[in-house]
Amino acid sequence: MDASTINELLAGSVGGAAQVIVGQPLDTIKTRAQTAPSGMFKGPMDILVQTLRKEGFFALYKGMASPLLGIAGVNSLLFAAYGVSKRIISPFPQLSLKEIAAAGAMAGAINAVLASPVEMFKVRMQGQYGSPSDKRLRAVVSEMWRDWGFRKGIMRGYWVTVAREIPAYAGFYTAFEISKRKFSERYGAQIPVWALLASGSTGGIAYWLACYPLDVVKSRIQLRATPPQGTPVQYIARELKLVVTESGLSGLFRGLTPSLLRRRVEL
Predict the structure, then answer these.
(1) Which of 20, 71, 168, 193 is the most buried (most CB within 10 A)?
(2) Distances (CA, A) of 244 to 21, 151, 232, 240, 248
(3) Sequence-distant (≥ 6) Cβ neighbours of residue 243 within 8 angstroms
(4) Which one has a higher pLDDT value, 261 or 144?
(5) Cα 12 vs. chain centroid, distance in angstroms?
(6) Contact, 122 vs 137, CB < 8 A?
């Protein structure tokens, strides 16, 4: 690994930590919109108001420790996986958009190995509403390991995270590349920083639009007291059906607005 790659990974980790800090309040609102009992909240704004009133400002940062601790590993793995995936798909540096999508899908599947436990602990912290029985992150980790072990505890929700990350990163990298190439047609190879940021924002929006119902399923499965039963296909399909039964098709998109806003704020 050369010095420039190390610098890129370090910069990505620092930037990722900044994204977590800036975007965590919106992520907490998103997770609670996805997982709260029916009727508990009227919408994202009500989640914000009730959280601030009942739990205080710092409740919006519940679960932040998990992604902060994991961001360096997650970003490094994604960066490496995407680079390797592109080389596997094509020996040429300029990939078609279909090849970009395939490389992004491969990188997303690999990235789920770290993203799944990081997000599971975050979700379980965000799903606590300020009662005296609320647990700290260390206690949540210990409890999941003690009661369920590695596969059903620490890695709970892994397969639905894989299912989410495949379309999510296919969408992200494709939209990012389309936007970047459009800017390159006007500004040449060295496009302005604002254009890169705009491309990243476009990619982030595509990320959520490509996978959001699966993110709802993932949050619900990871927060539940017991691990899912059956094969991944069975329990994902069962959870999708349950969401629609409880809330209609709109239930599959609860919390989408905070997610899209988060992508804009982070950039």
Answers:
(1) 168
(2) 32, 28, 18, 6, 4
(3) 213, 216, 217, 220, 251, 252
(4) 144
(5) 16
(6) no
Residues 6+ apart with CB under 8 A from 213: 240, 243, 252, 253
d(CA 108, CA 99): 14
Residue 171 contacts by C-beta under 8 Å, 6 or more apart in sequence? 101, 104, 203, 206, 207, 209, 210, 211
**Nearest-angstrom CA–CA distance, 70 and 91:** 31
Closest CA to 198 of 176, 218, 225: 176
> How far apart are alpha carbons 55 and 32 in whole angstroms?
14
Which position has the token pair 């690994």? 1
pLDDT digits (tens, 9 = 90+) for 229-250: 999 999 999 999 999 999 999 9
User: What is the tens place of the pLDDT at every residue in 163-179?
Assistant: 999 999 999 999 999 99
Cβ–Cβ < 8 Å for 121, 63: yes
Which tokens in the block code for residue 237? 């399909």
Distance CA 149, CA 227 (A): 11
Sequence-distant (6+) residues with CB within 8 A of 177 are 97, 100
CB within 8 Å of 118: residues ≥ 6 apart? 66, 67, 69, 70, 74
Q: Which amino acid is at 1?
A: M
